[in-house]
């Protein structure tokens, strides 16, 4: 086999690997972007933000989208450079997407709409936790075990008994001191 054929085969193999890497990277990006949009939509789904918050949230999302578009353009530029023979490290593709993902998340997460939605999410989670705790305490009570409320009551009584015992001991010490 001639050197020209071997170089052409190596070139073809490298371009195929680059195309595969770019396709995989773009697929992962689309999945990440879809998951991000879905989670963002879920976070704000139950909230009806004020018009200013909604506007700011949409602006943040638009800025995030611009970051994704810029990353896609950079990917095309680097792919073109690689196809034209430039030595392009595949890690550059990963770095482009990581940087753009960080920027995009920062654009959306920095909005008051996201903060409000996040606050509502935390509030909902705390309510669910309280409901689960109440169900758990009911189940424990039905099995005949002491509940947290029962334990708290016993603890309060013990503290009160210790306080009274300490007061009685002090009185006894004073009486003994006077008798001596």
Strand and helix layout:
Elements: H1 3-45, H2 51-83, H3 90-109, H4 112-142, H5 148-179
Shape: elongated
Note the total helix count: 5
Could you tell me the mean pLDDT?
Answer: 80
Q: Any idea what the radius of gyration is? A: 33 Å
What is the share of helical residues?
A: over 70%
Q: Look at the helices and sheets and give the structural class.
A: mainly alpha
Poorly predicted residue ranges: none
Residue fraction in strands:
under 5%
The largest pleated sheet is described as: none
Observed structural traits:
180 residues; 88% helix; 0% strand
Explain this structure.
This protein has 180 residues and is mostly helical. The protein contains 5 helices and no strands. Helix 1 packs antiparallel against helix 2 (51-83), helix 1 (3-45) packs parallel to helix 3 (90-109) and helix 1 (3-45) crosses helix 4. The mean pLDDT is 80.
